[in-house]
Specification:
The protein is an alpha+beta fold. It folds into 3 domains: 85 residues, no CATH class; 38 residues; 26 residues. The protein has 3 helices and 7 strands; from the N terminus they run βββββαββαα. A 3-stranded antiparallel beta sheet has the order 2-1-3, with no helix packed on it. Strands 4-5 form a two-stranded antiparallel sheet. A hairpin with a 2-residue loop joins strand 1 and strand 2. The chain binds zinc ion (ZN). The site of zinc ion has 7 residues, from helix 1.
């Protein structure tokens, strides 16, 4: 269960020591590996399976890892089971970087999502389905179909203005 400096570095859960495999891209091919290649590997390309990669830049206050903001990080893999079992000790960081208890926040977010779904379904039930005009062959009328596509496109642009559509290029 222990990694020895003389042997290849095996991916293991920080908590339980379980072996972990990860998907990586080597020479444009997706490979599954269970140890770090000797020459190292690009961190942004490491996808541990059934586990999460936790990283930290370190900070003032820890004697363990504090490289003084030079951009280097320490990384750990933790299996999903260990995360799940100990989720009462985790914190959540929102987009404003505010910390909160992870489990409590997840419960609240799930509840909000459920409410939004219920509202959406209630709205959908009130809106009568439109009759789709058909052409002489029984296919949806192309002008009408295009107007639907335009409406969806418009809706998506409003929802995510930063989204760049490459399908027409
Ligand atoms: Zn584990």
């Amino acid at each position: 269960m222990h990694n020895d400096n003389t042997e290849p570095f095996k991916f293991r859960c920080l908590i339980c020591g379980k072996a972990i495999t990860a998907e990586v891209c080597i020479d444009h091919r997706i490979c599954t590996i269970d140890q770090l290649p000797e020459e190292g590997h690009d961190d942004s390309d490491l996808l541990p399976l059934g586990a999460i990669e936790m990283t930290s830049y370190g900070h003032y206050g820890t004697a363990f890892f504090d490289p003084c903001d030079d951009g280097t990080q320490v990384a750990a893999l933790i299996c999903d089971d260990c995360m799940e079992e100990r989720s009462d000790r985790l914190m959540y960081i929102d987009k404003q970087r505010r910390l909160s208890p992870f489990n409590k926040t997840m419960d609240e977010l799930n509840e909000q999502a459920k409410q939004r779904r219920a509202e959406h379904e209630a709205r959908a039930a009130r809106t009568p389905a439109e009759d789709i005009p058909l052409d002489k062959n029984g296919y949806p009328d192309p002008v009408y179909a295009q107007s639907l596509i335009d409406r969806i496109e418009q809706y998506r642009k409003e929802k995510s203005p930063g989204f760049h559509d490459i399908s027409h290029e």
